């Protein structure tokens, strides 16, 4: 069998996004405390393990995000790995809104960061260890300080 892969002369953001959407990825809701003390949150698919020793995880925040300054100033964040049946939760935090916590039950966790009350497949409470500029995003690396796991299959997206 012969494989032929067409190539493009220029890799645009739109083409790259379209093709990367074919790669299966997990989904997480990340929460933190904003600069004004209010909770902030967003759905991400850039979350991943960074190191086991020390325990580090990371995700990327887009510089065009309406709350980018809050995310970059946050001393920590909570990763809520969404379970396969929690599509509504994923969509809620993916929808643009001035207050994504409206109608969402949560409580204070590590360093008073917002922890969603809804059980998720995996919850990681992290303190920011590194921030790296990476093109039009900033890569936020956090040291995992607390972990809560449930017997649930994580949600996976793929087009």
Shape: globular
Mean pLDDT: 92
Secondary structural class: mainly beta
> H/E series, N to C?
HEEEEEHEHEEEEE
Spatial gap, N to C terminus: 26 Å
Number of strands: 11
Strands ordered across the widest β-sheet:
3-2-6-9-10-5-4
Whole-angstrom Rg: 17 Å
- Strand residue content: 35-45%
- Main β sheet profile: 7 strands, antiparallel
User: Low-confidence segments, ≥5 residues, pLDDT <50?
Assistant: none
Q: How would you name the oligomeric state of the polypeptide chains in this document?
A: single chain
Percent helix, as a range, is: 10-25%
Please report the number of helical segments.
3
Structure description:
This protein has 159 residues and is mainly β. Helix content is 14%, strand content 41%. It has helices at 13-20, 68-73, 87-94, and strands at 25-26, 28-33, 39-44, 48-51, 56-62, 76-81, 106-108, 114-116, 122-134, 137-149, 156-157. The strands form three sheets. It has a seven-stranded antiparallel β-sheet. It has a two-stranded antiparallel ribbon with strand order 1-11. The chain starts with 12 loop residues before the first helix and ends with a strand. The mean pLDDT is 92.
Features:
single chain, 159 residues, mainly beta, 7-stranded antiparallel beta sheet, two-stranded antiparallel ribbon, globular
Q: How are the SSEs ordered, and which strands pair?
A:
Blueprint: H1 13-20, E1 25-26, E2 28-33, E3 39-44, E4 48-51, E5 56-62, H2 68-73, E6 76-81, H3 87-94, E7 106-108, E8 114-116, E9 122-134, E10 137-149, E11 156-157
Antiparallel strand pairs: 1-11, 2-3, 2-6, 4-5, 5-10, 6-9, 7-8, 9-10
